[in-house]
Design a protein that fits this description.
Length: about 90
């Protein structure tokens, strides 16, 4: 399975929801707390093509988007193939 990375900030309900979704699928991920770290936030913004909201989720180098994006992919049946394909 590819490396999953999620950029988060403390006390973010969307971050919690996204992590719960990934955990429910048994996906191991690397969490980068970028909410209070300007360098890590700049890295997130650069990797995501300018998106500044939390969380931002990546599978390998592929940007999946934020919580709503990942939930939509899951509901459409598209998330599992992405997680398995890379």
């Amino acid at each position: 399975m590819p490396q999953v990375t999620i950029y988060t900030r403390p006390y973010c309900p969307y971050c919690s929801r996204a992590k719960e979704l990934l955990e429910g699928k048994g996906v191991a991920y690397t969490e980068i707390e970028a909410g209070s770290d300007p360098e890590k936030k700049a890295e997130m913004v650069q990797r995501s093509g300018g998106r500044t909201t939390f969380p931002q989720i990546f599978v390998g180098d592929r940007h999946l988007g934020g919580c709503d994006d990942v939930v939509a992919l899951d509901r459409a049946g598209e998330l599992d193939p992405i997680l398995q394909a890379a």
